[in-house]
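Suppose you are handed a protein chain with no further information: no name, no annotation, nothing but its sequence. What can you learn? This example shows the usual starting point.
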Amino acid sequence: MQTVFIRLSTIQDVRTLVDIVTATDIDIDLSSGRYVVDAKSIMGIFSLDLLNPIKLTAHCDNCTELFDKIAPFIVKE
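A reasonable first move is to predict its three-dimensional structure. Written in structure tokens, the prediction is:
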């Protein structure tokens, strides 16, 4: 399991992220505060607070390929 923080600033960002994660077999969760949703659910994502970075948890051992694809959304610490 690996975790990063992402920022989704526009509706197009949300759509692009959903397109990327639905193309994988990896279970991916997004969480904001106490709410956790499936990253493959566009409606679930819109129920989160998108004004702040969102925690993305990918349930895989080697998520390098996934993280390369979502690199534009990852918040640099």
